[in-house]
Amino acid sequence: MRPANLVLLAMCVIGVVDRTNAYSAEVEAGIYRITSDGQGVEAARTVGGTVDLGERLATNLGDSTIWSLTNRNDYYRVMVKLAAPLERQHRLAICVDGVCEVVGSISAPDADGKVAVLADVVGQANARQVAVALNAKIQDRQHPGHQLRVSFSTVRESHRIGEPVVLSLRIVNVGKTTVRFLEGGQQRGPRNNQFGFTAFAGHGSGKSISDTGDPRHRGGIGVYRELKPGDVFDKQVDISKWFKFEKADTYQVTGTYELELRDKDYSARIIWKEFVTERCRVRIEK
What we know:
Elements: E1 30-34, E2 41-44, E3 50-58, E4 64-68, E5 75-82, E6 92-96, E7 99-106, E8 115-122, H1 124-134, E9 138-139, E10 148-154, E11 159-160, E12 166-173, E13 179-184, E14 195-200, E15 222-227, E16 232-238, E17 249-261, E18 272-285
């Protein structure tokens, strides 16, 4: 399983629209029960659509944190800690200064009896407005300044049809910044989905080869890796779990490896997401 303190989420936001103050300004800040009886106050969500707000269940929204979930800083997560318990059996929404979103999760009470309420907000302007209203520091992502040299190579010079095709990934830290990332977390299944591949026949000028593998996985054990300047990370992978090379040919394979970079304290929050990539040739013989 993934380490319990990790929040891992990958996403692509298309057509982001800031919807600040798009609903009634009379809605006060707080945590609301979402109603479906038609008697609630309609509020616009930052992700699009609306939600009907019923009873307000909590008003004191203090001790808050907001951090970006994307390198583009256009999708954020808001965490508010509350002393009072909430009705977990109901869908809830959080509203702050004209911004309203559905609560995604509520933690169990901590040692102080507080629960963490989390919701996602689309749009940097919306996130900044929430941060100001909650007096919370917003944590944008910034490129950590890393420089990595990446290569994929075949372990063997050639392979016969039907044999496993093993590639070797090498990542060298050629910069001046230490890199910390999680190795694992997507490998509990038929293949390790921290890798990704595309393949083309005819030395790269032919047709693409279909991914016939099984991408399903249930997470996996993760281990933190640290690459100081000059350090090397090596890992092998069998790409027969992606492709069936059924014809003798030379294939151009492009590989990627997903790096979720952490800070020096190995925070649960990703400070930058990188997909290192390179090409290599795979020769298949009869």
